Every structure is written in structure tokens, then in C-alpha cells.
Amino acid sequence: MQNALFVGVSAQTALARELDVIANNMANVSTTGFKARSSRFQEYLMPVASADSFQRSDRRLSYVIDQGTPLDLTQGPVEPDSNPMHVALRGDAFLAVQTPQGLRYTRNGAFELDATGNLVTSDGHAVQGDGGPITIGQQETGLAIAPDGTISTNLGIRGRLRLVTFANAQALKSEGANLFSSEAPGRPAGPGAHLEPGALERSNVKPVVEMTRLMDVNRTYSMVSSVISRLDDLRGTAIRRLADVA
């Protein structure tokens, strides 16, 4: 009976983790360039005792182990908005930005100019070009971003956006604020990755799918809770009856 309680608790722990993932996805339905995460679990069979004196072999206990939350890297919907400083990423690539914590990566192409003329994201992080930060002078006009990331104004080319890719994008760590960090350095993105100027990539979260997952997880969690409660009642009954016999 005690083993059954442990199995139930392991299932509840995994389900609680999945609820956290779903909640985060739902909270970022409207976040530009957001990539959803899913939950991955694995069955863990408890090692059994090996004493030869047992009349029958032990039953193998199946627990649930959290195996991580992989990224869904599928392309999000691209919506034109005619803003010359907005770009949507298409393909396997990320934009490099400088943050107080160091170099980070994002799919958020909602750019703007700060008070000093630096090209920044909507969160104020400096967008990195191949040669570092990109600065536009106050006297410059006609800012345009080409599909290859080249930024130009009336005074000519001002830089080229740094697009990077990773050998194992699943190793990227979420840092919050729609940013990722990587222990491995990014490499220049291939020809399959390009920008769509005057547009933004929306979140790839599918609200209907997430709501379905949410209902399914809630039902399963309630069912497991009910089983644990009944097992606890059964144990209490057994203890009382054993006490009466004594």
C-alpha cells in the first residue's frame, strides 16, 4: 500500500510540472517570437529485491520521472505590420542581443531605437550586428532592413544583423523575457534562415491544444488524488481493525 502511495505522488509531481509548462505557454500566447515547451516523462521501474527466500518474485513498481521540457521550434505565424524596424525570422536561426547578463538569443524582431540611437529589442536589449551593436544617427532617415539582415539608411549600409544557429537548439536554456542562453557558442545561420522585413513572428503556442492539455492534466491529477485518498482511508481502516484484534 505504501508503494502505491509513492507511485501516486510521483505521478502528481510530474503532472504539477506539466501544469507549470502549460501555464507558461498560455501566458505567452501573445509574446512575439515565443517558442512553446512541452513535457517529457519516462517510466522508471523500481529495482526489486533479490532475496532467494521469497515465495514469489517482487512486483516491479512503475514510477514517473521528469525528463525535461523540450522546445517546440516550429515556425510561428508571421504577420505583416508595415513597421520598417520590425522583422520576422524564418528558418532555423536566432537573433543575438546583449543583456546585462551577457550575450543572449531571441526570436523577438520588434526593434526600435533608444535615446542614443542604438537598435534595441522591445525589452531594451542591444541588437547585435556582425560587428557589434548597431547605431543609427539622429540625422539619418529611410531605415530599411533587408532579408539578409543588412541595415541601411540614407547614408548607406549601417551594419548587418547577427543571425546564429546551434548544433543542438534543445540545449538552449530559457532565461525569461523571451531570451535564451547557450553554453555552446552560436554559429552563423545558413542560407535557409532569412528575415521578413515589416512583419513579426507571433508565438507558436496553440491555445486550443494547450487548453485541451490543461483539462486532461487536471482530470488526471484529480483522479490520482482520489486514488491516494482512498488508499489513505484503506490504510486507516486496516490499522483500526488490527488494533481491535489486538
TrEMBL record:
The basal body constitutes a major portion of the flagellar organelle and consists of five rings (E,L,P,S, and M) mounted on a central rod. The rod consists of about 26 subunits of FlgG in the distal portion, and FlgB, FlgC and FlgF are thought to build up the proximal portion of the rod with about 6 subunits each. Belongs to the flagella basal body rod proteins family. Residues 88-152 form the Flagellar hook protein FlgE/F/G-like D1 domain. Keywords: Bacterial flagellum, Cell projection, Cilium, Flagellum. Residues 197-240 form the Flagellar basal-body/hook protein C-terminal domain. The keyword Transmembrane does not apply. The keyword Plastid does not apply. It comes from the Bacteria. One of its GO terms (biological process) is bacterial-type flagellum-dependent swarming motility. Pfam families: Flg_bb_rod, Flg_bbr_C, LlgE_F_G_D1. Its main location: other. It comes from Methylorubrum extorquens DSM 13060. InterPro entries: Flag_bb_rod_N (IPR001444), Flagellar_basal_body_rod_CS (IPR019776), Flagellar_FlgE/F/G (IPR020013), Flg_bb/hook_C_dom (IPR010930), FlgE/F/G-like (IPR037925), FlgF (IPR012836), LlgE_F_G-like_D1 (IPR053967). GO terms for cellular component: bacterial-type flagellum basal body, rod. It is found in: Bacterial flagellum basal body. This is Flagellar basal-body rod protein FlgF. Residues 7-35 form the Flagellar basal body rod protein N-terminal domain.
